[in-house]
Amino acid sequence: MTQLLLLFVAFLVLVHVPPGRSEFKRCWKGHGACRPYCTKYETYMHLCPDASLCCLPYGLKPLASKPENV
């Protein structure tokens, strides 16, 4: 009986453990990730809909457009 109770308690604990993976919402056409803060290898572009930062790797940061001469 105690083994059955122990098995039941272990099952309940495992059910409540969140999965080990971390998935962030994507932004900037799927190239960025919405996070509370950016890593040292990323730059902030804009805010995501949930007010977190859209972080892009430095290599994907778009270049500033040149003003057109009219």
From TrEMBL:
Superkingdom, taxonomy of origin: Eukaryota
Presence of the UniProt keyword Signal in the record: yes
Signal peptide range in chain numbering: 1-22
Key words, A-Z: Antibiotic, Antimicrobial, Defensin, Disulfide bond, Secreted, Signal
Pfam families linked: Defensin_beta_2 (PF13841)
Keyword presence, Disulfide bond: yes
Domain spans labelled Beta-defensin: 26-55
Compartments where found: Secreted
Gene Ontology biological-process annotations: canonical NF-kappaB signal transduction; cellular response to peptidoglycan; defense response to bacterium; innate immune response; positive regulation of chemokine (C-C motif) ligand 5 production; positive regulation of monocyte chemotaxis
GO cellular component: extracellular region
Entries under PANTHER family matching the protein: BETA-DEFENSIN 124 (PTHR47897:SF1)
The family this protein is said to belong to: Belongs to the beta-defensin family.
Purpose: Has antibacterial activity.
Name the record gives this protein: Beta-defensin
Organism: Delphinapterus leucas (Beluga whale)
Gene transcribed to yield this protein: DEFB124
